[in-house]
Every structure is written in structure tokens, then in C-alpha cells.
């Protein structure tokens, strides 16, 4: 089978930019050979960033306008990128920016018009990856196990420290389990921004703060452990729990960073308990993997239970989610099920997203 090149596009809940990765996939017997050929993060312009932050409270009319604006922005940025570096791609696979994620009510909403992306780039574009799973009764997340088990074999667990932390792991019975853990970079970045910084570089500010144990207990109590229960966390829930609680606190912001980092580390450890005493190796990716202080705390807690934490290359840390979207696009054009109904809670497996054909 001929190689397929796909540009994976991800806009995470932490709003730190648009991640783009040109990926190549080729099926070889029962395995997939893959490579990230080029990757880049594009910051959002201030007006678009401001609009995305306000999106959940927008009117339907304004939200649809933003959907078109974001799609056009993504399309123009991809077009500029591929022309600048003389790149070629068969497809674009864009996650879009999540505005609402309410699987219990039967819907999920990611904006960033696929029609606009396809028009601006002249490349067939796939979007709306979560909708089919939600329609089948699933949580529409997490999708990470699709890539982890096929593209990164050999680990017992896979931890993603994005705006929201999530995990997938192999149980003692070799069954895949996966779920969202709780807030991560959304909370840390919000606290950093209160001090005039976009994020806490290397966790340096957090490392200088004092941990408030009463607050750690409060933060952990908002996200009780639900092993085996498919769980997808919405941005709205993050806002109404940790972010609202932290904004209302009178504690020093540096102490809040230290406290929130400790809460994230302890929450992660709780969710790693199925791997305790199994000599497990866990692969960690996502922006939080660059936070040295947070990683120090996660490693310290995990090592006490014979769980080893491993970081891949910087490119994989930064662009694993874009690679995932590209791989989901690859499965879609192959007509292959994602095969994750067991972890999302869907009644059946589903195939892919919506394809927008480009003008030729």
C-alpha cells in the first residue's frame, strides 16, 4: 500500500497555539510505519485568541461566525506553511477547537470549519472526529489509545499532560483502559497569567511556592477516581471547578502554582494505581512534560511504587496530539474503525470524521 501523507492539526484547551504536523503513514504487513516529516506551532492572533476564550458564552450566530473565521485562519496558515517549505500532503486532519463537550446530552462541538480549510488549502480535509462516537453513546474521548497502541507499543501506560490530563493504560488482563484525569495546564497557565506570564517556564515559579495542603485536598476532592468508567472532561467543568476555586483564593499566586502542581501530581499518581508494583513504564507527552517541577513531583511519587516515567523526544512531546489527529485521518480514509468503544463507552465502534472535498 502506498504511503499517505496527512497534516494533523490540533488546537488544545490550553490555547497555546495551533499545532501542525506533516505525518507519513504506510501499512507494512500488520504494522504501521510512520514519521513526522515537519512540525510547527503557530500562535493565535490576539483577536482570535480573545474570541476563543469567550466562545462558550457566545450567541449561536457569533459562534458560527467564529467557526468560519477559525477555519479560514487554519486554512491560510497551513497554505502559508506548505508553500514556505514546499510541502505536499494528501489530506488534512483537523481536530478543531472544543467549545462544548456534553456526551451525556448527546453532542460535542469543535469549531474550525473544515470547508474553509479545504477551500484555502486545496487539500481534502477531515474534521468532526468525536461526533460519531458520541452518537453511538460514547464519551467521544479519549482517542489517544488509537495511536498509543499502534504507534508507540511497548509501554504499560501513556500519560498526556495537556490543558486537561488524560491517561490510557493496559490492565493486568491486557485490556485498554482510558479516561480524562482532571485539569492540568489550563489551571497552571491561568495562574501564571495572573502574574503576567503566559505560562510557568520549567515550573520555576511553582518550585518557589509553599504547598497549601488544605487546598490540595479540596482540589483532589473535585475529581474522585473512577477506574474503569469512561470519563471525558469538558472545558466548562474545568472552569466551574478548579479555575473558579483558584480564582477566588486569597493565597499568594506563587503558592497557588505550587499547590496546583502538587494536586496534579498526586491526582496523576492516583490514576496510575492500576500499574503499581508491575514494573510499569509510562510514556509522558503534552506541554506539561516540559514543566520540570511538575515532572519532578510526578516522578518522585511514581518511583516509590515502581512506576517509571519516560519522556520521548521534544518533537513527540509537543506534537503527539497532532500525530494522533493525522493517524485518525489516516484510519478515516482507509475506512477503518477507531476501535475504541471499550474505552469510550460507545455501543459500537465507529469510523472517522467528516470529509470536506477540496477544489482541484
Write structural notes for this entry.
The chain has 360 residues and is of the alpha/beta class. The chain folds into 2 domains: 4-140 and 319-356, ATPase, nucleotide binding domain (Nucleotidyltransferase, domain 5), CATH 3.30.420; 153-311, ATPase, nucleotide binding domain (Nucleotidyltransferase, domain 5, 2-Layer Sandwich), CATH 3.30.420.40. It is built from 13 helices and 13 strands. The chain has helices at 46-54, 60-84, 114-121, 131-135, 144-151, 185-194, 204-207, 213-221, 235-247, 253-271, 292-303, 314-334, 341-344; strands at 4-11, 18-28, 31-42, 91-94, 97-102, 107-111, 125-127, 157-161, 164-170, 176-183, 280-285, 307-310, 354-356. It has a 6-stranded mixed β-sheet with strand order 3-2-1-4-7-13. Strands 10-9-8-11-12 form a 5-stranded mixed β-sheet, sandwiched between helices. The relative contact order is 0.17. The mean pLDDT is 92.
The Cα radius of gyration reads 20 Å
CATH homolog superfamily of the largest domain:
ATPase, nucleotide binding domain
Biggest sheet, in brief?
Answer: 6 strands, mixed
N-C termini distance: 24 Å
The CATH topology name of the largest domain reads: Nucleotidyltransferase, domain 5
Present the secondary structure layout.
Blueprint: E1 4-11, E2 18-28, E3 31-42, H1 46-54, H2 60-84, E4 91-94, E5 97-102, E6 107-111, H3 114-121, E7 125-127, H4 131-135, H5 144-151, E8 157-161, E9 164-170, E10 176-183, H6 185-194, H7 204-207, H8 213-221, H9 235-247, H10 253-271, E11 280-285, H11 292-303, E12 307-310, H12 314-334, H13 341-344, E13 354-356
Parallel strand pairs: 1-4, 4-7, 8-11, 11-12
Antiparallel strand pairs: 1-2, 2-3, 5-6, 7-13, 8-9, 9-10
Helix pairs in contact: 2-3, 6-9, 6-10, 8-10, 10-11
Amino acid at each position: 500500500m502506498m504511503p499517505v501523507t496527512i497534516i494533523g492539526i490540533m488546537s488544545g484547551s490550553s490555547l497555546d497555539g495551533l499545532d501542525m504536523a506533516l505525518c507519513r503513514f504506510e501499512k507494512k504487513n500488520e504494522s504501521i510505519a510512520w514519521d513526522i516529516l515537519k512540525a510547527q506551532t503557530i500562535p493565535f492572533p490576539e483577536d482570535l485568541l480573545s474570541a476563543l476564550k469567550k466562545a462558550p458564552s457566545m450567541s449561536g450566530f457569533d459562534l458560527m461566525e467564529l467557526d468560519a473565521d477559525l477555519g479560514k485562519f487554519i486554512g491560510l496558515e497551513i497554505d502559508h506553511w506548505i508553500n514556505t517549505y514546499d510541502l505536499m500532503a494528501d489530506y488534512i486532519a483537523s481536530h478543531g477547537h472544543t467549545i462544548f463537550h456534553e456526551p451525556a446530552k448527546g453532542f460535542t462541538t469543535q469549531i474550525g470549519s473544515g470547508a474553509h480549510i479545504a477551500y484555502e488549502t486545496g487539500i481534502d480535509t477531515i474534521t468532526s472526529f468525536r461526533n460519531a462516537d458520541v452518537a453511538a453513546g460514547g464519551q467521544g474521548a479519549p482517542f489517544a489509545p488509537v495511536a498509543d497502541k499502534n504507534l508507540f507499543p511497548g509501554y504499560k501506560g501513556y500519560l498526556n499532560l495537556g490543558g486537561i490530563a488524560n491517561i490510557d493504560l493496559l490492565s493486568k488482563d491486557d485490556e485498554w483502559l482510558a479516561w480524562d484525569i482532571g485539569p492540568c495546564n489550563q489551571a497552571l497557565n491561568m495562574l501564571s497569567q495572573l502574574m503576567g506570564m503566559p505560562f510557568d517556564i520549567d515550573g520555576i515559579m511553582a518550585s518557589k511556592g509553599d504547598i497549601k495542603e488544605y487546598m490540595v485536598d479540596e482540589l483532589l476532592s473535585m475529581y474522585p477516581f473512577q477506574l474503569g468508567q469512561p470519563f471525558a472532561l469538558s472545558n466548562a467543568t474545568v472552569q466551574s471547578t478548579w479555575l473558579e476555586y483558584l480564582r477566588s483564593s486569597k493565597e499568594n499566586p506563587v503558592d497557588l502554582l505550587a499547590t496546583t502542581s502538587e494536586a496534579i501530581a498526586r491526582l496523576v499518581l492516583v490514576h496510575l494505581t492500576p500499574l503499581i508494583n508491575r514494573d510499569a513504564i509510562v510514556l509522558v507527552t503534552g506541554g506539561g512534560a516540559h514543566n520540570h517541577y511538575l515532572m519532578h513531583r510526578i516522578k518522585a511519587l511514581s518511583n516509590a511504587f515502581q512506576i517509571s516515567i519516560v519522556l520521548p523526544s521534544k518533537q513527540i512531546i509537543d506534537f503527539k496530539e497532532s500525530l494522533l489527529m493525522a493517524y485518525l485521518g489516516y484510519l478515516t480514509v482507509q475506512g477503518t474503525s477507531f476501535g475504541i468503544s471499550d474505552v469510550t463507552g460507545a455501543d459500537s465502534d465507529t469510523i472517522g470524521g467528516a470529509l470536506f472535498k477540496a477544489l482541484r
